[in-house]
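Appendix B. One record, verbatim.
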Amino acid sequence: MFAFLAVLVFLLEAAAAILDAIGYGSIAAALWDTYCRATGNRKAAERLELRAAIVALRRDLRSVSSVDEFARWAKLRRRLDALSASFETVSSDLSIERTAFELYVNM
């Protein structure tokens, strides 16, 4: 019985040391990613789509001269501003969800 308790205490201390070495942030990030994939979090998917659209628009904007093709440049710039605002809103909402998740996991 004593040997069992000694092994149990040793394993618990080893697990605590490993968790301390890895760090809470890494574990929480891995759990959040797993949670988003498992639940099919729409905001996370929307954030990825918006990010890809913003990158594509920035690429297009770099290829257009603001002097020579002002109308096209202005239209792209307005779309980029609108997508950036949407991206910030979704990112803010997702950040709030992530913080709530991390608080729940920490308890």
